[in-house]
């Protein structure tokens, strides 16, 4: 509760770059080296066959990244699953369901027709995937092989999409898509806990294709792409952005075009891995962000949370509160709908700026 009070009283965010300059970051260097060695050794053991890697009799496409924080995996998973479904593939999505509290080893989030609606059991991202991919079965489980096997046996899938699967080496995959956010493509090139990287940059050698996201928000896109090319000169490189397609009032079918935000005073509300990107998206639509109420990634909202945010909006005379799709799947399920009735969610879609043909050939073809 103390963290929430701090967030309520002051919603401005210290950027990751500011945090990176903290002297304590250097003290974490030995731990980062130890962590990096462990991840490198683990990958080599799988590559040598000393750790077992199991295969499923279906095409497996992994969507993952090298860093912690939001690179946009969920909208990419949604785009891939829907594109494959549109090509007639029988697609299933397997996710770990980060932050879920259900005790089942495998939990079915959607059967392709009806969905569970409890983010505490499923995690927020699988619930959003199920909502945006209405014809695709979705299941969560820590063991991605077992979860994929469940989807295969229950629904007869011929293609499995792994949400956040790059480090899940126990399951063989046919395509490894690695996302790099153009606003912080290589982070500070330091491993956890000193930096944001889960693995060394050399791990990109396992990838099939690099997907650059949020290209429109990069200050120097050409420089970003050049830096990526230095690290991974031979990998196919696709460049994308996330476009706002609509504003939808939470809990209702009411929708407006995103350009209605132009000139409006809005309070942003988010509990995601990269909140700065959400603020930049709103500003790119012409919104005047008068405050940004931040919560931890995967935060499960309470009625009190909503009441405080709406009080902030009223105090600042904001025209509306705007939140993300990931947050909206949790907010819309609260029993007291008084606060979220005034909240709006930005719907986004993945858009290709470069290399669509190569992406289609590598990822979407049989």
What's the structural domain tally?
A: 2
Give the rounded overall mean pLDDT.
Answer: 89
What is the helix tally?
13
Number of strand elements: 13
User: What low-confidence regions span 5 or more consecutive residues with pLDDT below 50?
Assistant: 1-10, 12-23
Coarse morphology: globular
- The CATH class of the largest domain is Alpha Beta
Question: By CATH's scheme, which homologous superfamily of the largest domain applies?
Answer: P-loop containing nucleotide triphosphate hydrolases
What is the CATH architecture term of the largest domain?
A: 3-Layer(aba) Sandwich
Helicity range: 25-40%
CATH topology of the largest domain: Rossmann fold
- What is the alpha-carbon Rg in Å? 20 Å
How much of the sequence lies in strands comes to 15-25%
Strand/helix succession: HHHHEHEEHHEHEEEHEEEHEHEHEH
Structural class: alpha/beta
What's the N-to-C terminus distance?
50 Å
**Biggest sheet architecture:** 13 strands, mixed
Could you walk me through the main structural features you see in this protein, from its secondary elements to its overall organization?
By secondary structure, the chain is an alpha/beta fold. It folds into two domains: about 60-235, 3-Layer(aba) Sandwich (Rossmann fold), CATH 3.40.50; about 245-350, Rossmann fold. It is about 35% helix and about 25% strand. It is built from 13 helices and 13 strands. It has helices at about 1-10, 15-20, 25, 30-45, 75-85, 120, 125-130, 145-155, 220-230, 275-285, 305-315, 325-330, 355-365; strands spanning about 60-65, 90-95, 105-110, 135-140, 160-165, 175-180, 210-215, 235-250, 255, 265-270, 290-295, 320-325, 345-355. Strands 1, 2, 3, 4, 5, 6, 7, 8, 9, 10, 11, 12 and 13 form a 13-stranded mixed beta sheet that branches. A hairpin with a 5-residue loop joins strand 8 (about 235-250) and strand 9 (about 255). Helix 5 packs parallel to helix 7 (about 125-130) and helix 7 crosses helix 12. It is globular and about 60 Å long. Mean pLDDT is about 90; it is low at about 1-10 and about 10-25.
